[in-house]
Amino acid sequence: MEPSSSTSVSVAAPNKTAAEKHAERMERLRKLHMQRNEARNSNHQEVVAEDERKKLPTNWEARKRQADWLIEDSKAKADAEAKGLDYNRVKLMKVSAAEADRFDKLKAKKKNADPGFSDYEAQTARQYNRLIKTMEPRDLVRYEEQKQKYGDAFYGGPNVVLQGLHKDSPNAVDKMVKDLEQQIDKRKKFSRRRTHNDDADIDYINEKNARFNKKLERFYGEHTAEIKQNLERGTAI
């Protein structure tokens, strides 16, 4: 009986010789050595690059970005001028409405910047600069007259008595009174922040305890809200 055509005949693969197996192992070993050397060279390059970056100034990357931007901006401006285009219009075409609005707000803030003050020294400096702006131009003729009149006492000193030497003019007194009245009216427009809410529950015995309770409420208030409600209703277990 002849075997059917669907029956597959398996052919055994020829066994490799010891020399061929040795050659394959040596080839794999050579590839591993090559990969190790590539990784070693790559790590060495990264270490050198990182060491060079550490030696650079702290703002080197920002300065490099700014220099690259200036170069690109100069090239774009030259291209626009070569084509006879207005560079400002070309540049604005690439800016979105949100970015343009942000730029306008930054410009307005720089024009009318009010940094405020953080201590009494800065507050005094602000007051001094404000008063200087309201001063009238110096009268050099009157300045020389007072200088000749008072002599060494004109500049003052540790052993000079100035009381009674100078008499303020009525105009100067009126100006000082007007400035003080303006300061009083300006202070009336400010409202002092209240230290506590009169309608809030008093759960503290002093200011330190009140601050501690606020800190607890800020961190654990959402977790203890149900317990507080049960205690207030008297349904706590």
Descriptive overview:
The chain is mostly helical and 237 residues long. Helix content is 65%, strand content 0%. The chain has eight helices and no strands. The N and C termini lie far apart (92 Å). Mean pLDDT is 80; it is low at 1-13.
DSSP summary, beta strand count: 0
Integer average pLDDT: 80
Determine the N-to-C terminus distance: 92 Å
Structural class: mainly alpha
- Spatial extent as radius of gyration: 42 Å
Run of helices and strands: HHHHHHHH
**Number of H/I helices:** 8
Helicity level:
55-70%
Question: Stretches where pLDDT falls below 50 for ≥5 residues?
Answer: 1-13
Which shape, going by the Cα principal axes?
extended
**Amount of beta strand:** under 5%
Largest sheet: none
Provide key terms for this protein.
237 residues, mainly alpha, 8 helices, 65% helix, extended, disordered N terminus
Quick structural gist:
By secondary structure, the protein is mainly alpha-helical.
Please outline the helices and strands:
Elements: H1 18-55, H2 60-82, H3 87-92, H4 97-111, H5 120-133, H6 140-150, H7 170-188, H8 207-233
